Amino acid sequence: MVEFRSEPFLIPLMSDEVFRRLASYIHENLGIKMPRSKHLMLQSRVHKRLKALGLGGYEEYCAFFFSPRGQEEELDHLFDVATTNKTEFFREPVHFDILTRTVLPAIRAERELTASRPLVVWSAGCSTGEEPYSLAMSISEYASAGTTFPFLVLASDISTRALETARLAVYSEAAIRTVPVTLRAKYLLRSKDREKNEFRIVPALRAAVRFFRLNLMEKSFDLPVRPDVIFCRNVVIYFDRATQTRLFRRFAESMARGGYLFTGHSENLCNMGVPFASVLPTVYRSIDGTSEDA
Ligand SMILES: C[S@@+](CC[C@H](N)C(=O)[O-])C[C@H]1O[C@@H](n2cnc3c(N)ncnc32)[C@H](O)[C@@H]1O
Question: Which of 242, 241, 243, 261 lies closest to 251 in space, CA to CA?
């Protein structure tokens, strides 16, 4: 019998067994921790999937999800359910200052940036695109203030829904409030339909960002080129320590020699034994000889 919570929620309760199965699947495949405290969150998000699929209960959902058809059709939806996509333009603004004032001048002093070897920055866990577009705006501003150089922003996420929004590059007035006013005029186009109050990233900036789907749990990253800089912020906070350690090692193996890694303000690499040296709080530099120049 399906139990219901009291009005006004009327969300059926998910059994511990269903929670355990879905939670372990999410943890094993996405690295995202799903402790018992996430039961209500998972329950309400999966409930939306029950309604969308017209299923009668969580057991039925579980049976569908683990069936061959479910693995094909529902996987992306469960990944969307499990991930938190909260983001904003120029989140943790000090990182964009460090990038343009310290990191980019250092990279430019070390090597020439050419069309065949442009500056490459990777936003790993890019969510709906605000982070990679903020990177592209910052780099573009820095480049246009001096001698311009070619650059590419790689941007990946596991959530197909988030990537769709990112590729569309249309944002509400509320979403663009953290874009500095001077940059809005240059990099955002207001919707012709004034009532909509929406803004789209200009084509030139969209062209500088390449979005792709990638699970950071993969054993190796098949990147088209080695990034000079990786922004992986507010992503590993949801991972357990062993998963974080493996990921940071793979970053070191995948990036350009001496590349820079930016993490979120509550994420750090202390005592992990990973091949990065701290440059500034939450900014690291790869010190491993395993990564090679592209
Ligand atoms: C809270 S958002 C952070 C977005 C952005 N980096 C920022 O700081 O604003 C975390 C993102 O990580 C993504 N993510 C979580 N687990 C992932 C995984 N295993 N592989 C790839 N992306 C993942 C989520 O889909 C989500 O979009």
Answer: 261
